[in-house]
Specification:
Elements lengths: L3 H13 L16 H8 L25 E6 L5 E5 H8 L5 H8 L18 E4 L2
Antiparallel strand pairs: 1-2, 1-3
């Protein structure tokens, strides 16, 4: 471990050094035309994510009629209608919170450890 004086000396030397060329300093004209052609022809260039994953959406924002949550450990599957989930848990509850409550009564696969017992939710699309 360097001493405080050595660390100060290293910091002063780092400030005095000329910064390396970064991406901000590269001029677009320096790039070959083949590069730009490949960038524009990339099929993933127009890809836009669909928004929030379904487990992070509020129940009032989900347009699906039926919601499904399953356990990765015991393979238990629970289907619930969106209207019923809104009635039971409220409009502003996320699907993850509601799904965890549906699986709260415990997993069929017991480990004996209180921390490890419980379902591992998997939010599927029916």
């Amino acid at each position: 471990m360097p001493t405080p004086k050595q660390m100060e000396k290293l910091a002063i030397e780092a400030v005095r050094r000329k910064p390396a060329a970064g991406f901000a300093e590269i001029d677009a004209a320096d790039m070959p035309p083949e590069y730009w052609e490949s960038v524009l022809n990339d099929p993933y260039a127009d890809f836009r994510p669909a928004g929030l994953p379904i487990q992070q959406q509020r129940l009032s924002e989900i347009s699906r009629h039926v919601l499904r949550v399953s356990c990765r450990r015991c393979d238990r599957v629970i289907d619930i209608q969106t209207a019923d989930a809104v009635r039971l848990y409220g409009r502003h509850t996320t699907w993850k919170e509601a799904g965890m409550r549906l699986l709260d009564d415990g997993c069929r696969q017991r480990t004996g450890s209180r921390e490890d017992d419980g379902c591992w939710p998997n939010f599927e699309t029916p």
